[in-house]
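step=encode ok
step=design start
structure_in=
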């Protein structure tokens, strides 16, 4: 098994094994250099204390013996002759009743009453044997060991374990996060319309696409992007070719229509007029399809120049007012700010005009259609915003995100009175996106729909 989970298991197992081996080696080497290190250290300390107590007695008697004992833990101690006679004792020393007078020749521990005593044989300067008895203090009377002393026993195995664990975690994070970051970046670009995006795979992964789950996911993502690019490209090509091919028969149909009118009777003229109107609608649809196709193929913004949105909307206003007379409704322009961006005048004109004409078509008779220009900001990014609002019936909430798709129309719009092919808003969406902006539709609380076109004012060519 060469999958990702096997690799994770192997890495964790090796890391834990390495931590255990290193920690154990340091503990055994530095804390337990010999099997009897603990008992040897205790014997050495006790013998040193016994020699110091006997030396204090020889130098100054029992008072010096008590002073020496006071410098240590107040646990109590007694100095005995070999015969068992008490030579000196501290005031807090427990009674020796029940103590066996047979003293050992080496350090030994015994239970004396309710206390535990250590018997340490010592020899004076004149070779006289004595027995130093040191009473071990009870656990409740011992001073707690400072916390920093415990840290001493954790060095260096704890820092080594932390270092090895941190290095292992760092390697795991690199293994997991780097391919995920690349995939996320590519998915974001694909969602924004860049169908040519691909995730770069490692050389070994390129040869073995299923070496692990991450490489398999990269391979599947790239395959999906290739299929999407191929399908969308074929759709655009078909749309463009069909639109071009329809222009020729439509032109011949117009010529044939004019010739037929010369010999037509008045009754036949009504039908010819209907044919002419339908031919004009079809010609308009083909023109919009060609426009949409050319905008889909256009990615370069090198020709963008500074454009005043205020002047652009002022130029659209007269034509909008003229068309609004047939509704009838009123179109007004509110200029809250002076807004300018870098863009293409014709593309922006067509995008805004499509939204305004759509608002005029669906607003209620006798109401207002408002074009508002103002400055806004989103996440500290300055924006130039154009809002087109109407007083119509609004758009069902589930449909708000779909009205900018080509040929998408609400059921209420599929009538001969409102018209429309569902292409105008798709052209607007593409034009706004080419300028680095965003387009959204929201329903107003008081009724009607507001279409917002937001352009970054710092968008560069």
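sequence_out=
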């Amino acid at each position: 098994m060469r999958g990702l989970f096997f690799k994770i298991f192997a890495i964790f197992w090796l890391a834990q094994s390495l931590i255990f081996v290193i920690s154990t080696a340091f503990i055994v080497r530095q804390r337990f250099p010999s099997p009897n290190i603990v008992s040897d250290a205790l014997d050495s300390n006790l013998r040193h204390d016994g020699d110091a107590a006997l030396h204090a007695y020889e130098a100054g008697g029992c008072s010096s013996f008590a002073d020496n004992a006071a410098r240590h833990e107040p646990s109590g101690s007694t100095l005995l002759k070999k015969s068992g006679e008490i030579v000196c004792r501290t005031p807090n020393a427990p009674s020796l009743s029940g103590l066996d007078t047979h003293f050992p020749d080496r350090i030994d521990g015994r239970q004396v009453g309710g206390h535990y005593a250590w018997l340490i044989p010592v020899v004076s300067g004149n070779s006289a044997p004595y027995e130093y008895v040191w009473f071990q203090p009870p656990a409740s009377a011992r001073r707690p060991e400072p916390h920093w002393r415990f840290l001493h026993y954790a060095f260096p195995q704890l820092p080594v374990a932390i270092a090895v664990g941190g290095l292992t975690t760092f390697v795991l994070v690199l293994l997991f996060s780097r391919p995920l970051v690349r995939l996320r970046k590519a998915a974001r670009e694909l969602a924004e319309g860049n169908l040519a995006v691909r995730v770069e795979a490692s050389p070994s992964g390129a040869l073995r696409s299923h070496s692990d789950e991450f490489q398999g996911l990269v391979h599947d993502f790239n395959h999906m992007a290739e299929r999407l690019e191929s399908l969308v490209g074929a759709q655009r090509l078909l749309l463009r070719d069909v639109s071009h091919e329809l222009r020729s028969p439509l032109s011949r149909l117009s010529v044939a229509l004019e010739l037929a009118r010369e010999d037509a009777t008045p009754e036949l003229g009504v039908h010819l007029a209907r044919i002419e109107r339908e031919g004009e609608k079809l010609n308009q649809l083909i023109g919009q399809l060609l426009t949409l196709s050319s905008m889909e193929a256009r990615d370069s913004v090198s020709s963008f120049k500074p454009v005043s949105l205020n002047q652009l909307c002022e130029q659209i206003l007269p034509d909008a007012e003229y068309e609004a007379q047939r509704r009838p409704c009123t179109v007004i322009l509110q200029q809250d700010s002076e807004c300018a961006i870098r863009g293409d005048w014709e593309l922006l004109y067509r995008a805004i005009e499509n939204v305004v004409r759509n608002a005029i078509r669906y607003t209620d008779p006798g109401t207002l259609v408002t074009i508002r220009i103002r400055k806004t900001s989103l996440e500290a990014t300055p924006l130039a915003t154009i809002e087109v609002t109407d007083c119509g019936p609004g758009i069902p909430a589930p449909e708000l995100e779909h009205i900018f798709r080509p040929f998408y129309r609400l059921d209420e719009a599929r009538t001969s009175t409102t018209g429309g092919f569902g292409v105008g808003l798709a052209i607007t969406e593409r034009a706004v996106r080419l300028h680095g902006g965003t387009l959204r539709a929201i329903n107003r609380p008081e009724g009607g729909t507001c279409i917002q076109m937001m352009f970054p004012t710092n968008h560069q060519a």
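step=design ok
step=annotate ok -> Residues 37-143 form a domain with the Beta-Lactamase fold (CATH 3.30.450).
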